[in-house]
Design a protein that fits this description.
eight-stranded mixed beta sheet; 2 domains; alpha+beta; 40% helix; 28% strand; elongated
C-alpha cells in the first residue's frame, strides 16, 4: 500500500490511530499488545520503489512500549536504516542471482557459477545416469499451431518430462528446442539410486502426460515424446568462446543416450534404456522390461543391448533413496 501511494514512511499508534482498522496485519499486532508501528520504504536508486520490482525494500518495526516508539528509538532506527538496507540489498541481490541461475541453468550449474567456476575449460569427470527426451513431430506441430499455442504445448511437455526429472532429484542440464538432456550424478547417491531415479523419471514423465490427457488438456492430446536412459562417464564443465561460455556435459555417453532415444522411434517404444543403466537399477514387480536385443546406434562403434521400459500396476521402481 505504501509503495502504491508513494509514502516513504508510516508511523502509527496502534491503540488510537483509526488507520489500523484498514489493515489486518495492524489489527493483529494491536491484538497481540503492540502499541507502536513504524514502516519505511527504501529505494536503492534515484527513482522511487515501484510494485513488482526489486529496486528497494520495505521494512517495519513494532513495539509494546506503553507510549510507542520514543524519540530515542526513532533516532536509533534512522541511524541503522542505511547500513541495514545496504546489507539487505546484498542478500536480496544474491538470492535473486541464485534463483535466476537455478531457473535458467539448474541448481548444480548455478552453484558452480556462483562459486566462481566460470573459466573456460573448468570441469570435472562425473559418472551419472543420463536421460534424454525428444518431442515427436515438433516441426509439424509448430507449423499447425499459433506461436502462443505451440509455446503452451511445449510448456505442457516440459512440465511432464523435465518436471519428472526434477521430482526424482535429477538435474536438467539443457533444453535445446524440444529436446531435454538431464543427468543423475552418482557422487551423492551411488550407482543404484542414480540409475533407478533416472528410470523412475522416465516412467513418471509418461505418467504425467497420461494424466494431462486424462484431464482433457487441449495441448496434451497432441503430445508424444520418447525417452532414452543410459549410464556412463561424462565431462561436466565449461566450454565455448571467451565471450560466451556454456556449462554442460560432453562425452561418448551423451551421444549414446541421444542415440538411445532415437531408437525409441524405430522400436515404437516410449522409453528405451541401455543395458548399462538397467543392470544397475533396483527393480520390483511394478516394472516390466522387454529385452529388445542388440542394436547398432548411429555413430556408436559397438552394438548395445536395449530394453523397452513399461510400467504396470501404477508403481514405480523402488529407488532406495
Amino acid at each position: 500500500w505504501m509503495i502504491k501511494e508513494g509514502l516513504p514512511e508510516l508511523r502509527l499508534q496502534l491503540d488510537r490511530d483509526t488507520m489500523v482498522d484498514r489493515f489486518p496485519l495492524l489489527q493483529r499486532l494491536r491484538g497481540e499488545g503492540f502499541t507502536g508501528y513504524l514502516a519505511r520504504v527504501v529505494s536503492f536508486g534515484e527513482k522511487p520503489m515501484t510494485v513488482g520490482t526489486t529496486d528497494g525494500l520495505a521494512i517495519s518495526w513494532s513495539t509494546k512500549a506503553p507510549e510507542g516508539f520514543s524519540t530515542r528509538d526513532l533516532s536509533i532506527m534512522q541511524q541503522i536504516l542505511a547500513p541495514l538496507s545496504l546489507a539487505l540489498r546484498v542478500l536480496i541481490k544474491d538470492q535473486i542471482a541464485k534463483n535466476a541461475l537455478n531457473a535458467f541453468h539448474g541448481p548444480l550449474v548455478g552453484e558452480r557459477i556462483l562459486s566462481g567456476t566460470i573459466k573456460r575449460g573448468d570441469g570435472e569427470r562425473l559418472t551419472a545416469a543420463l536421460w534424454y527426451s525428444d518431442l515427436r513431430n515438433s516441426t509439424g506441430l509448430a507449423d499447425a499451431l499459433s506461436v502462443e499455442g505451440f509455446l503452451e504445448l511445449l510448456n505442457v511437455y516440459f512440465d511432464c518430462a523435465a518436471g519428472a526429472v526434477i521430482e526424482e532429484g535429477g538435474q536438467v542440464l539443457d533444453i535445446v528446442g524440444d529436446a531435454i538432456l538431464a543427468f543423475f550424478p552418482v557422487e551423492r547417491t551411488g550407482d543404484e539410486a542414480a540409475a533407478t531415479a533416472a528410470l523412475n523419471a522416465a516412467i513418471k514423465a509418461q505418467e504425467r502426460l497420461a494424466a494431462a490427457k486424462a484431464r482433457a488438456c487441449a495441448c496434451a492430446k497432441e503430445i508424444t515424446f520418447g525417452v532414452g536412459v543410459h549410464f556412463g562417464d561424462v565431462v561436466f564443465g565449461n566450454a565455448g568462446t571467451r565471450e560466451r561460455l556454456k556449462f554442460g556435459v560432453i562425452g561418448r555417453a551423451v551421444n549414446e543416450v541421444a542415440r538411445t532415444q532415437d531408437m525409441s522411434k524405430l522400436l515404437g517404444q516410449p522409453i528405451v534404456a541401455t543395458d548399462e543403466v538397467v543392470r544397475r537399477a533396483r527393480a520390483d514387480s511394478g516394472l516390466r522390461l522387454n529385452d529388445m536385443g542388440l542394436h547398432d546406434l548411429r555413430g556408436i562403434p559397438a552394438a548395445k543391448r536395449l530394453w523397452a521400459l513399461r510400467q504396470t500396476g501404477g508403481a514405480a521402481l523402488a529407488n532406495g533413496r
